[in-house]
Amino acid sequence: MASMMQAQHEKRRGSKGQGYSAVPTQSPSGSGDEPRGPPQNDCQGFANIFGEHKVLSSMLFIFTPAGYISHYLEWEPQYVFALNFVAIIPLAWLIGKATEDVAAKTGETLGGLLN
Fold this sequence. Notes:
This protein is an all-alpha fold. Helix content is about 70%, strand content about 0%. It has helices spanning about 1-15, 40-50, 55-70, 75-105, 110-115.
């Protein structure tokens, strides 16, 4: 038991100071040879996330507002449900991407708790 605790302590001590290691993505050229560096600011990071997944991004920007609008226009419940059901798919992807990035920054333990 003591050796396990000591090994965990060494692992924690060794992992400090390594800095941010984001989940690697493909290069802008799409070759996949070299990973992109971290974004320079939040706007660039936002653009990178939505630019890499055009289908999910378009689903997010189309079906999420359509679900709200269909509710307020009092459409049939099955149409409101269908639009909101499809809108959940890109939202789940976005939450998963955010927790991966937080886990890369804070460590496996906190990232697992957030997930």
